[in-house]
């Protein structure tokens, strides 16, 4: 079967690795590749790699130098290995480094702006926009936790310079009601109940502005995820899933960006052995460059996106279970 565009089925083949590693933006124009049948039934969805969207290129120009910034974060609270009594965890961050005008802030009119991605354990991130205002995690469950933070742009692409990413582990004594979700002080859900309870209704993510009710963001399989998670080894390779997450509609649904953070990892294009495997609705491809990709051609409805850090032997790199992360997203086409 001849197909004019790169399909997800093709991503699963080794040829995909060659042109993706060579730079997907340039290479995908003239690639006609023969797809063979696989175990998975043919997907009606035909995802194609596209270059950085023009509207983002335009935003970058308007932002001046700030996309060349090297923001560095420090987690002031919770302190490293802190023991917190009660279920409220205060998150305090200090942003320094070569900022070139980069400042987290949500524009009230557009609902967008620079922000920090804050990840509790291996849950989808929540956005922290105003660093001088409190950001609290409420109803955090008892036990060991990990907090990861890194600066992001209005279109959710992370800064990838040294020092941008920070992580601490902390312990909660006492803890909250495990039948209720962990939320931020503004009501966004950070983690679903670890004991079964009613699922909150899906709503808008911060992509589309302020949401009156907490966003679901695919956080309802956290009980399973937490059960299999171990401690992170800070010296070992670590992949942090960032995007996509939540609900996408209209212009935001085409294309959709995949983005992630790598710690202690060199991918192939930097002379390393590692690769990032992405699997969308069961169909896989490999990334050999640490940069976001944009995929177009999503069908309306729910999708599962998994990102995994893969070693030279093709295995997921073990680090507390954190190097294989799946998220449910929902796409609503116009
Ligand atoms: Cu974001």
Explain what this protein looks like in three dimensions:
The chain has 334 residues and is mainly β. It has two domains: 2-55 and 239-332, Immunoglobulin-like, CATH 2.60.40; 60-228, Sandwich (Immunoglobulin-like), CATH 2.60.40. It has helices at residues 8-11, 14-21, 24-27, 54-62, 222-228; strands at residues 2-3, 33-34, 48-50, 70-77, 82-85, 89-98, 115-120, 126-128, 135-138, 143-152, 166-173, 182-184, 189-191, 238-243, 246-249, 256-263, 275-280, 283-287, 293-296, 301-310, 324-332. The strands form five sheets. It has a five-stranded antiparallel β-sheet with strand order 4-6-9-12-13, with no helix packed on it. Strands 5-11-10-7-8 form a five-stranded mixed β-sheet, with no helix packed on it. A hairpin with a 4-residue loop joins strand 12 and strand 13. The radius of gyration is 20 Å and the shape is globular. It binds copper (II) ion. Copper (II) ion (CU) binds next to strand 7.
Chart the SSEs and their pairings.
Layout: E1 2-3, H1 8-11, H2 14-21, H3 24-27, E2 33-34, E3 48-50, H4 54-62, E4 70-77, E5 82-85, E6 89-98, E7 115-120, E8 126-128, E9 135-138, E10 143-152, E11 166-173, E12 182-184, E13 189-191, H5 222-228, E14 238-243, E15 246-249, E16 256-263, E17 275-280, E18 283-287, E19 293-296, E20 301-310, E21 324-332
Parallel strand pairs: 5-11, 15-21
Antiparallel strand pairs: 1-2, 3-19, 4-6, 6-9, 7-8, 7-10, 9-12, 10-11, 12-13, 14-16, 16-19, 17-18, 17-20, 20-21
The protein binds copper (II) ion.
Copper (II) ion is lined by residues 115, 117, 127, 152, 156.
